[in-house]
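DATA SHEET
Item: assembly model
Revision: 1
Owner: S.N.
Input lines:
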Amino acid sequence: MSEIVQSLALGFGVAASLSNLWYCFLGALIGTLIGVLPGIGPIATMAMLLPLTYYLQPTEALIMLAGIYYGAQYGGSTTAVLMRLPGESSSVVTCLDGYAMARKGRAGTALATAALASFFAGTVVTLLIAIASPALTELAQKFGPAEYFSLMALGLVAAVVFAQGSPLRAVGAIFLGLLLGLIGADVNTGFDRFTFDRPELRDGIGVVVVSMGLFGIAEIMLNLSGGPEGQGERTKLSRLWLTKEDFRAAWPATLRGTGLGALLGVLPGGGAMLGSFASYAIEKRISDTPERFGEGAIEGVAGPEAANNAGAQSSFIPMLALGIPGNSVMAMMAGAMLIHGIAPSPNLASTQPQLFWGLIASMWFGNFMLLVINLPLIGLWVKLLAAPYRMLFPAILLFCCIGIYTVNNSAFEVGLVALFGLLGVVLAKLECPLAPLVLAFILGPMMEENLRRAMLLSRGDPSIFLSRPISLGLLIACALVVALLLMPNFRRAREAATEA
Amino acid sequence: MITPSRRSALGLIAAASLAALPQVAMAQAYPTKPVKIIVPFAAGGRADALARMLAQGLQEQMGQPFVVENRGGASGSLGSDLVAKAPPDGYTLLLASTGTQAILPKISAKLPYDADRDFTPIALMVESYSFIGVHPGVKASNLKEFVDLARAKPGEFNYASSGVGTYNHFAGEFFNIAAGSKITHIAYRGSGPSVNDLVAGHVQMMIGGEFVEVAQAGKVRILATTNPQRWPGLPDIPTMKEAGLAEFSAPPLWFGLLGPGGMPRELVEKLNQAANKAMSDPKTVERVKAAASIVRTESADAFAGLIKAEQKAFGDVARQTNMKFEE
């Protein structure tokens, strides 16, 4: 323990140097901005800034890049709340209740909740990184293909919870999401599926493309069509802060979201993104008043926002503890290290203690700076809502196009976003819930991939899913959720709840 | 008013002056505007890091900006296609690899370009080291023991790759052919998840350079290097030949600079020399070494010959193992 204190002291010494603080601030600020701009994600931004880090000290470079990543998680919720436009794929869930809150004039409260929950999660998980990285890495290593499959299966079953209204429509949305997720080269054979000979589709469709189209673009079209979701309802804000009741409702959700996000974030692959979905599902499930979800429940903002920031932070763990980048952002961090001739490795803490602990300590500063940056901005963002819509929406569309284009320098994807916007309108008219679709789109490919990988490893013996304890546990949980859904009284209660 | 005869005379003069403009002069003047180096992979990877090192070196020598542009997707064929269709004037270059030039053309029949005709090899930059790594739980302390074990228990072991048709995948199949073993291929999306499962022991073997650091911490056991020479960074690790599997014939993984097909000879020479000089910079050599690679400076012809030889080697294994992207 004293060793950790000593190491952290070293880290704070490094991170508190003037230049490191500056790059931490710069990273946090850039992260916030690109988080706010829809489409431009941390990956594209880090890629653009990578050549510049060539001229920095490695510690400065990594502190800044890390700041961009977790800063984007803060900023990503802003447009999700204000315009139902997820700034980052991790803020898709925030669109649900955050936007509903904004429509009720509580945009300021929603944004403050998101910032505070993110801050709480960020600081707690940073501590977790410092003290529990090895243990968490060990846990993550226990997750083989079979465990992943069962986890994804549980997630998919839980997706029905996201449904508002008829479960049949939710199931339909799930299947549509699964089908969309199949597009691209099959991992096991390399063969194309549903790509219509377009090489651009070989790597599948990006989550940002799907969620921006379905949520953001579709919302703009619906607003302009003046339909039931017309712009007349755009109400002025009442207050910018949380009431005592808000705090009481939000903090347990924040706690749960933090824990959930931290655990899922450690898993390599899409872990960090799953946290926010999982948190939302759990909050809705355990709430006494699940009917409030989708209508502006503050727990539906606090939990997922805490979870996505916790996940963003804890996804550093495999990278820092093992030197293995778990997602593409971490691969970018590894790239930045390589530029400076530092290879990411399990020995990073002993060979580069200054960099290792400096980076961890900087996350505390970074999270604090983000809170300082974000809270005063809330007033400004909310004022944006007062701008006339006819001026707002062309600007939003323009930013969307720029953002999507920069991800892969691909005009094709800009066209795809438009297509998904259209699909979003159709689905809205049919009253199909979008969150299950997006969740299935994310989970489906991972689930299939791990199913087939597990079956390959077991040479075709399906008992692998039952003989491994973690996998078995997850599948039992799955069965319980299904049983609950099928149980008549629960169904009635659920229907009564959704109709209310 | 220009009469037909005058027009044709003007045309003749123009044509003559164009023909007289020696390509040497064009090469001497190069570059007069910024040059684009296309990396056909996502930013942050090895190819990207190399491209940026090269770009900086070329920029310093030639006084024009060399801009790196990432155009990832479809195993590198999207970015490669942009270069294949660009004019061969030296202002659009490609940072290619074994994967894009020697492997992809042998497993994909649908490429929108001709991998030979549409590219001009300019400079081999880097040879990357690959190693046979096994999970520490595997009961084999050297390559010979592992080969014996794999032969004795066919179908028991698995090897990981970062995807179908990647270098890791091919190297694994070259191993199966050389050792007469039947180690099952397990494909992952990218190298992160594959190394992760190797460290965790969900798969037992992988051939590549991605786990060198992890191995130095004892989480993966390296049995041999698959390159023809030992890696200076791990001088105790034997080559395949030294370790008793001389039949293993996978060519090493490289990264190099190419241009569109039909680039003028002089331009190629000029870029080859500049690239070789940029890569020989001591700081660059050091940085390349940190990523389990060495700098290679060869003539453009030697580079072209190497690509040809590799295409054959990978083509043979692709045929033997029926590895391809389409039916």
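QC remark: The beta strands of chain A are 184-185, 192-193.
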